Amino acid sequence: MPPTAADLIRELPMGQLVDHQFFVLTSMKEPLAWARTTVRRLLHGQTDQDQIDDAVLVVTELLTNAIRHAGGPVSLTLDRFEKGVTVGVTDRGRDVAALPADVVCPLANSPKGTPGDAGGGDLTTNGRGLFLVAAFASGWGVEPARDGKVVTAAFCSSGSAA
């Protein structure tokens, strides 16, 4: 199982917490667009553009998963540290075992190297979100929350992970 958010913060050189933002997105008409705009606005001038782009991509993937699969209330947390950023998405889902712990290439075992030959589902349009999270974040984790789970991704200030 991936590390918890607390483990991520202890293990990565993030420094002290500078700012904490929490948003409930459940009743929003366009939560993904709102979240992308908000993350860009809150991080503008606070970190480099690569890290902002990475955080926006990861927030989009985590929120899409939460909205599509978990149902119920969804919230977003953005914590800015002296030397990094964490984003967390909380949803009603309780399945933490299905989350990949390591980045893997879903095409690695494909005999022809094409998306349709990967087996196990259509990865051309679905199933890649958490692999992107693992690829772009410095670290990520999942842990139970009061009424579901929270998936947290951390980004160290050294720039883009990909």
User: Main beta sheet, described?
Assistant: 5 strands, antiparallel
Backbone shape: globular
Give me the number of helical elements: 4
Strand order of the largest sheet: 1-2-3-5-4
Uncertain runs:
101-125
Helix/strand-derived class?
Answer: alpha+beta
Strand content: 15-25%
How would you spell out the order of helices and strands?
HEHHEEHEE
Q: End-to-end distance, in Å?
A: 22 Å
- Helix percentage range: 25-40%
The count of strands amounts to: 5
Compute the average pLDDT. Answer: 78
| Rg, Å, rounded | 16 Å
Write the layout of secondary structure elements.
Elements: H1 5-11, E1 17-24, H2 31-43, H3 49-70, E2 75-81, E3 84-91, H4 129-136, E4 139-145, E5 148-156
Antiparallel strand pairs: 1-2, 2-3, 3-5, 4-5
Helix pairs in contact: 2-3, 3-4
Structure description:
The two termini are 22 Å apart. This protein is an alpha+beta fold. The chain has a five-stranded antiparallel sheet with strand order 1-2-3-5-4, with helices on both faces. Helix 2 packs antiparallel against helix 3 and helix 3 (49-70) packs antiparallel against helix 4. It contains four helices and five strands; from the N terminus they run αβααββαββ. Residues 101-125 have low confidence and may be disordered. A hairpin with a 2-residue loop joins strand 4 (139-145) and strand 5. It has helices at residues 5-11, 31-43, 49-70, 129-136; strands at residues 17-24, 75-81, 84-91, 139-145, 148-156.
